[in-house]
Design a protein that fits this description.
Strand order of the largest sheet of chain B: 1-2-3-4-5
Radius of gyration of chain A: 18 Å
Number of strands of chain B: 10
Strand content of chain B: 35-45%
Number of domains of chain A: 1
Low-confidence stretches of chain B: none
Pfam families (chain A): Peptidase_M14
CATH architecture of the largest domain in chain B: Roll
CATH class of chain A: Alpha Beta
Strand order of the largest sheet of chain A: 2-1-3-6-4-5
Helix content of chain B: 10-25%
Cofactor (chain A): Zn(2+)
Radius of gyration of chain B: 18 Å
Largest interface: A-B, 40 and 38 residues
Structural class of chain A: alpha/beta
Protein name (chain A): CBPA1 Carboxypeptidase
Number of domains of chain B: 2
Mean pLDDT of chain B: 93
CATH topology of the largest domain in chain B: Nuclear Transport Factor 2, Chain: A
Number of helices of chain A: 7
Low-confidence stretches of chain A: 192-217
Mean pLDDT of chain A: 89
GO biological process, one term (chain A): proteolysis
Number of strands of chain A: 6
InterPro entries (chain A): CARBOXYPEPT_ZN_2 (IPR057247), Peptidase_M14 (IPR000834)
Distance between the termini of chain A: 19 Å
Largest sheet of chain B: 5 strands, antiparallel
CATH class of the largest domain in chain B: Alpha Beta
Number of helices of chain B: 3
Strand content of chain A: 5-15%
Oligomer: heterodimer
Order of helices and strands of chain A: EHHEHHEEHEHEH
Chain lengths: 279, 221
């Protein structure tokens, strides 16, 4: 490091209640360090690239989940003029900011904040990635749902690199499933996570939209990876880790090591692809 | 209009599946059985003029206490057009047998009936996802009750999961039923909100679980 080499960015814990993510971040950091010099892929990656891993990306929220409310999601910003605290850090990015899937109500779990990058947690990453200038991949880790997602969330039209991202996602979830059989689905955030363009409605003006049209409730304006993608970081992915709803955010700690273990090959697939496809 | 085949990853299909599973979890779940979706195998949607949207689903379910055994179900979920206050109609047909829970049900029933003090507990699971073994049946019963709440309160644009049992209090009854008053936290996946609900569940080994009352706890945080 230190020479502004190409870099991969990973973050965990941006939503504080998603405790499996911070734990997976710690395990993964250790794994990367362990495998350097042992695993050829990890060695090749670290010999020419840097990996940045932010583990407790929402520290105030995380502290709050320990002290007061285990299910707290947002930051702990005071909202002027409101009793309600906190901004959703994954709606605060300047990509489709304020769009569907985010709320202008400070009391909402998806409150986007007073303006893009209002949250210092988000601003810190924006400033870092911009100043670095050579980040080639952003992988933002969440839970739960067992999905591997790529841009866009704030628009329905496929991203220009949709095909390549989709093929990489397919390989990654297949290698993840090979470990313990855990099934993930993959696709872009906004769309119906399928390879069926005929089901994706054409962009039509809102006032002409028939009342039965699928509401853009799956869309999300202002997400991390949409911002990254729009700012030149091609390989931008969001992972939603275990489980699919039985425990949700309160995943048993006995599942930390299995979750991190199965996620590792998926992360490695992405990182190897980034290494082998410089741009 | 004709039925449209949907890919399994299609989010509205997944939401309809969650309603069907919630319904079935309520009907067939209990302290010794928790039904979970293993796979949505097939989904079709039909838009019925002046009625609503009907989803026809093929599901594979597993019992969380016996993961090797699965059953296949077909389900129809009809969301009524424009009606936010009416629950979706659900029909489910289960192919095959679910493992019998008679022994475990009897054991749970007698254990609770012979408690001197009414059972009280909170935060199930705890922050680290742990459920003490003696509270696992209570967790599963709350999960069955949340299946009812999910079924009754879902729309095409919501997906509810039980996040945590905040509080449970047993209420001793003079009749044969066990009664548990729960406060459950439901996580709604589209809005990401955590919604507290109060729900009273009656349970008996032969009669299964019945929600006798439930309501959302007033807003305010």
């Amino acid at each position: 490091g230190g020479s502004n080499r190409s870099a991969i960015w990973l973050d965990t814990g941006i939503h504080s209640r998603e405790w499996i993510t911070q734990a997976t971040g710690v395990w993964t950091a250790n794994k990367i360090a362990e495998e350097y010099g042992r695993d050829p892929s990890v060695t090749a990656i670290l010999d020419s690239m840097d990996i940045f891993l932010e583990i407790v990306t929402n520290p105030d929220g995380f502290a709050f989940t320990h002290s007061s409310n285990r299910l707290w999601r947002k930051t702990r910003s005071i909202n002027a003029g409101s009793r309600c605290v906190g901004v959703d850090p994954n709606r605060n990015w300047d990509a489709g900011f304020g769009g569907p899937g985010s709320s202008s109500n400070p009391c909402s779990e998806t409150y986007h904040g007073p303006h893009a990058h209002s949250e210092r947690e988000v601003r810190a990453i924006v400033d870092f990635i911009r100043a670095h200038g050579n980040v080639k991949s952003v992988i933002s880790i969440h839970s739960y749902s067992q999905m591997l997602l790529f841009p866009y969330g704030y628009r329905r039209a496929p991203a220009p690199d949709h095909q390549e991202m989709s093929e990489l996602a397919k390989k990654a979830v297949s290698d993840l499933a090979a470990v313990f059989g855990t099934k993930y689905i993959y696709g872009s955030i906004a769309n119906t996570i399928c390879e069926c363009p005929s089901l994706i409605p054409q962009q039509i003006p809102r006032e002409w939209a028939p009342t039965w049209a699928p509401l853009p409730a799956d869309m999300a304006g202002g997400t991390t990876i949409d911002w990254a993608y729009d700012n030149g970081v091609k390989y931008s992915f969001t992972l939603e880790l275990r489980d699919s709803g039985r425990y949700g955010f309160l995943l048993p700690s006995s599942q930390i090591v299995p979750t991190a273990t199965e996620t590792w090959p998926a992360l490695l697939d992405i990182m190897v692809h980034v290494l082998e496809h410089p741009y | 209009s004709p039925a449209m085949e949907l890919p399994p990853g299609h989010l509205p299909a997944a939401r309809a599946a969650a309603v069907a599973v919630g319904y079935l979890r309520y009907l067939r779940g209990g302290p010794a059985r928790g039904l979970e979706l293993r796979e949505l195998r097939r989904a079709r949607r039909q838009d019925i003029d002046d009625v609503g949207h009907k989803y026809c689903l093929e599901l594979e379910l597993e019992d969380v206490l016996d993961k090797d055994s699965t059953v296949t179900c077909t389900a129809e979920v009809l969301y009524h057009l424009g009606s936010k206050s009416s629950a979706p109609d659900v029909q489910v047909t289960v192919q095959g047998e679910l493992r019998s829970t008679e022994e475990a049900d009897k054991e749970f029933y007698h254990r609770i009936r012979s408690l001197e003090k009414e059972l009280v507990a909170e935060n199930i699971p705890d922050s680290h996802g742990n459920v003490p073994p003696e509270l696992e049946p209570i967790h599963l019963l709350a999960w069955a009750a949340s299946g009812y709440i999910t079924w009754q309160n879902s729309t095409e644009n919501t997906k509810l999961h039980l996040a945590q049992v905040k509080h449970v209090r047993q209420v001793k009854r003079s009749d044969e039923d066990l009664q548990f008053d729960f406060v459950v936290l439901l996580h709604e996946m589209v809005s990401q909100e955590v919604l507290p609900w109060e729900v009273t569940v009656l349970w008996h080994p032969q009669h299964g679980a019945r929600v006798s009352q439930c309501h959302a706890v007033g807003a305010g945080r």
